[in-house]
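Q: Predict the bound structure with FE2/S2 (inorganic) cluster.
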Amino acid sequence: MTEISNELMDKLTKICLCKGISRATIKKAILNGADTVEKVWKESNSGNGGCKGKRCGSKIEELINTMKKQEENM
Ligand code: FES
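A: Predicted complex:
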């Protein structure tokens, strides 16, 4: 996949379905220093929808871990 389509997919993919928060917004929160699920929720105004973070929590945790690994490999 090209860089542009990755970016587009990040914008189109919703991580927090209750609040309609995209993967792009979640990634931005992580890049801004949010290194736990709770911090990402706070920074991106997600995790406080109907399911109280049950559906997005594990996806966010996965994303934090993936991004940490990518950073270590740089
Ligand atoms: S999916 Fe994020 S609060 Fe429900």
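A: The mean pLDDT is 95.
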